[in-house]
Design brief:
The protein has 303 residues and is mainly alpha-helical. The chain has 14 helices and no strands.
């Protein structure tokens, strides 16, 4: 090989080496993601079209096609879990948005001790869901809970917070609102502080009231931040499990059985993994449709 050929080959090798070098750096991270994320998702999706039970998996995992999904949507318990999930999501997010908007508007003004107030409302976000669930379970205790203690002191009858079918879901909504309202407030506060001042100065000059300024200026300019906050809270609330499990475990009488609790019951108690996988993917598909709609609205608002 001549010196001219060697001179042309080496730059090519160096070029390909430089092009491939970044892939070798990120390859371990991709391998970890494939092992802990892609493979379980793919296997559970494959499992949703098969019958996997604890009694019969040793003899084989037969293909059942769409039978798991058909039986899923014809099961009244699953329909009830969907209804409970949507009721919880709509009520919790609505209350969190109203309270979060109020806190954001309050913190957007110059107040004494604003930094202290902001740090205090962040405290619930610092706690893990397990600690939150166990703490509120003690607070809601019928006999020894501090909430019923003060209710008795006021002369009222104690409330069956977690054992009453009408109050159990409300109790979980209260816990979720306490935990995540500060997140919504911070998201909306960031949007408020990034808005331009000129339209508000023009509105004040024109004599617009505070309510008119809020409805016709603040809300339209804050639309993208509102949609982002709602999207994050939708994803987080729709898949809630740990707080519900620690407080009520889906009871009483399935009054708080969300889809996550339903999947856990069939997957890890009945060991019907094919049916549980179908239920989990049905939940994922429903959440993706709603999240995709909100993401599209975010894109339109940014345009």
């Amino acid at each position: 090989m001549s010196s001219v050929e060697v001179a042309t080959v080496h730059p090519r090798k160096r070029h390909w080496r430089q092009q491939l070098e970044p892939f070798f750096y990120i390859a371990p991270a991709f391998l970890v993601l494939i092992v802990i994320l892609v493979y379980p998702l793919g296997y559970s999706f494959w499992l949703s079209f098969h019958e996997w039970t604890l009694r019969g998996f040793t003899t084989g995992v037969p293909w059942v096609g769409l039978d798991n999904y058909i039986s899923l949507f014809s099961n009244s318990d699953f329909i009830n879990s969907l209804r409970m999930t949507f009721t919880f999501v709509i009520c919790a997010i609505s209350v969190e948005f109203i309270l979060g908007m109020g806190l954001a508007l309050l913190l957007n003004h110059e107040l004494k001790g604003k930094g202290f107030i902001r740090s205090m409302i962040l405290l619930p976000m610092m706690c893990t869901n397990v600690v939150i669930g166990l703490t509120w379970r003690l607070l809601f205790n019928y006999e020894f809970g501090i909430i019923n203690f003060y209710i008795r002191q006021l002369g009222f009858a104690p409330v069956e917070w977690l054992s009453n079918t009408h109050m159990a879901l409300i109790s979980i909504i209260i816990v979720d609102v306490w935990n995540t309202t500060s997140f919504v407030a911070l998201m909306l506060l960031a949007g408020l502080q990034s808005m331009p001042e000129e339209p508000f100065e023009a509105a004040r000059i024109d004599g617009a009231s505070a309510w008119q300024t809020f409805v016709y200026l603040t809300l339209p300019l804050l639309r993208q931040s509102i949609l982002v906050a709602l999207l994050w809270r939708l994803i987080d609330t729709f898949r809630i499990f740990d707080v519900v499990y620690l407080l009520t475990a889906g009871g009483p009488a399935r009054a708080t059985e969300t889809v996550s609790i339903y999947v856990y019951t069939y997957g890890f108690k009945s060991f019907n993994l094919g049916y549980a996988s179908a239920a989990s993917y049905a939940m994922i598909f429903i959440m993706l449709i709603i999240a995709g709609f909100l993401a599209r609205m975010i894109g339109r608002s940014s345009d």
